[in-house]
Amino acid sequence: MESNLSGLVPAAGLVPALPPAVTLGLTAAYTTLYALLFFSVYAQLWLVLLYGHKRLSYQTVFLALCLLWAALRTTLFSFYFRDTPRANRLGPLPFWLLYCCPVCLQFFTLTLMNLYFAQVVFKAKVKRRPEMSRGLLAVRGAFVGASLLFLLVNVLCAVLSHRRRAQPWALLLVRVLVSDSLFVICALSLAACLCLVARRAPSTSIYLEAKGTSVCQAA
Fold first, then answer.
1. Tens of pLDDT along 158-197?
2. Neighbours of 117 (CB within 10 A)
3. How far apart (Å, rounded) are the C-alpha atoms in residues 74 and 31?
4. Is the dihedral of CA 195, 111, 52, 70 positive or negative?
5. Comparing C-alpha atoms, which of 199, 62, 209 is closest to residue 121?
6. Predicted pLDDT of residue 16
7. pLDDT at 21
8. For residue 142, with 0-12 CB atoms within 10 Å meaning exposed, 13-18 middle and 19 or more buried, which class applies?
9. pTM metric for this prediction
10. Are the C-beta atoms of residues 204 and 194 closer than 8 Å to each other?
11. What are the tens digits of pLDDT across the range 81-121?
12. Which of 128, 126, 139, 134 is closest to 193 using CA atoms?
């Protein structure tokens, strides 16, 4: 045991992995990119209002999620210019909003894309088989349930970690297993939906063209 401990590097001898100049440059680059994304999405939402498009649609919800995600990332990286220690000592709610909520928003965006393409597939089938409309309701319920489960696991893990009610490694393991599994399942589901949309091009293209896009653009 003593021989193993003697080989450890003392804390005083640890140095940053990257020079401060490189770290500052990366922080500025990421903050700029996130800010540009925020203003780009913000402008698109204003264009939706300006041209009188449907205000509540898959497109506007997708843009709203992207806008919130970019805003949270820009806020987080802005801390790293002058007050990095403060970013690591935030309260429970600010910490969850800046560190955990963006991951939830990414998953919500993925499920939203799944819902959109699943709807395209089922709309093409409903014309021939009206009973398929029940399948669309089941798919919507499944993705809503997956989103709620993802959010619940992340919130509970953040709360328990802050209150130190459980071992950090156990919370991390549960969060990674649940979150990563849901991400993989939704990614596979999205790939399957895209394959079905491409295979049923004659029937799905009619629905997509009515929405102002094509099968190629959607894929």
1. 888 777 666 777 788 888 899 999 999 999 999 999 888 8
2. 23
3. 5
4. negative
5. 199
6. 56
7. 63
8. middle
9. 0.82
10. no
11. 777 777 777 787 888 898 889 999 999 999 999 999 998 88
12. 139
- Residue that is written with structure tokens 């910490």 in the block: 95
C-alpha to C-alpha distance for 12 and 105, rounded to whole angstroms: 39
Question: How far apart (Å, rounded) are the C-alpha atoms in residues 219 and 197?
Answer: 8
For 98, the token pair is 């800046």
Residues near 198 by beta carbon (within 8 Å), at least 6 away in sequence: 215, 219
Q: Which residue has the tokens 């020079």?
A: 19
80: tokens are: 């790293």
- The three-point CA angle 194-197-200 to 5° equals 145
Exposed, middle or buried by CB within 10 Å (0-12, 13-18, 19+), for 77?
A: buried
For the chain, give the number of residues.
219
pLDDT in tens, 109-154: 999 999 999 988 888 777 677 666 778 888 899 999 999 999 999 9
What tokens were used for 189?
């589901």
| CA–CA distance, 133 with 119 (Å, rounded to integer) | 10
Distance between CA 54 and CA 24 in Å, rounded? 42
Q: Where are the alpha helices (DSSP H) in 127-200?
A: 132-163, 168-199
Alpha carbon distance 179, 151 (integer Å): 9
